[in-house]
Amino acid sequence: LTDVEGPAVDYTNIAYTDNNDMVFVPNDTMRITGTFINYLGTINNLNTTLTVISGGSYVTILDGSHSVGTLGTMGTATQASDPYQIKINTNCPYNQTIVFKLNMTDGVYSVNKYFSQIVNGDYINITINDIWTTIPSQGRIGFRNSQQSQGLGFCYQGSGTLLYDASLMVGTSSAKVSDMIRGATAGQDDNDFQSQQIVQAITPPVVSDFDAMGVFRDNISPAPLPVTVRHREFAWATAPHRKYIIVQYSIMNTGATTLSNMYAGIFADWDIDASTSGQNRADVDNTNRMGYVYSTVAGGKYCGIKLLTNGAFNNYAIDNISGGGGGVNIYDNFTTAEKYQTLSTSRAQAGTTGQGNDVCHVVSSGPFTVAAGDSIVVAFALIAGDDLSDLQNSAVDAQSMYNNLPLGSPVTVAHITTGLNAFPNPASGMTQISYNVAEGGNTDIRLVDAQGRLVRMLDTGDKSPGAYSVMLDAAELSDGIYFVQMISNGKLTTQKFVVSH
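The structure corresponding to this sequence follows.
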């Protein structure tokens, strides 16, 4: 008898990139690479073909083939120079899962590998400096979903994520707090915020090296305040501003009565790092108005949240252990009353015994009294560093930067503006987009769809004060509602535009 040993090929270490922000939005080209490994007998003339078995109408395979050639026993091959290429189509919905099938064959031997990837996520990845993080559209920081799903977390200089989860919290009483973190039922998050305007990068940026903005509100909360939150993010690529990201929240009272005793802050459960997260401590730097968490392990990193705006500073350090270690006990659940307590009172330290333990903190500002229709602004710097001194230096730099940001004319949205007009509107063919530049400076004219996704850039560049126009062929667009946006000198104005053939 004879036994001819056949091959056994697998595809591992699968990686996805768009050479940009790794969110894979419509019109992006996603590139897939991996490692081919053959565990058994030699295989010759190995060829591969990638197809889509679910979500195929939302992507187009531009290049789905790769020739591997010969692989001996335990032989490996990579494809960095010849990735599979997939274009994300303009009709792709948010957070769409695409399931791929990779067939690997030499004509006789054949095996399939199945894997999936989420595309067109409703979040922004910020990767411009030493901190890599994700800003979702619904108030979380680091990850779009609970259990560290969909997002980069909070990485520092190539580390794994130093953050388990984080979210904005806004509350007015022990019965009313809106947030996106763990709630009164163990294992379940409170999902109080809903996106009203998907977070998007402002391209080119007008304030920092990377600007983003979006809008969410707490209308889906069982007990809405109610508020609408317009958030903005800023990041810089050059020293000494590479170790922090600024997040700013403009919180509007959309109810009919005044909101009193309102606090707004960020809850963060840091794991520095994940393998030694039970050896963390939380502390406060009142001079820099910053709460911070660090690892007691030699060479451990530091992460902090610094209040940048002028309101009262609060920091509540939490021992995330059974019983709460003398503070609020969130180990089994995090009630609304406990959330308001951490927003409105202070506790300086956690993890003070032994080598420390798992800790969290809430850095907040308040109390505020906000009349119906009015807004308050709170801003924070999210910072990482090698030690406390490094963290404090970045805190000082962040405060100086924020104090001098051109935020006096905040980005606002007006759906009717005399400075921007489309004619004819509705349109089916050639349309003239006219606009007025009041102050000289960089001006962008762009077209977005009803979900806020960029369809095309119509005009961009440094403009002198005056009147301008650009032509748009509506015949190239599908029927529906769009918006023409003008970004000039930190101001965003929007004109509704209807295409009807």
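Residues 252 and 374 are 6 Å apart (CA to CA).
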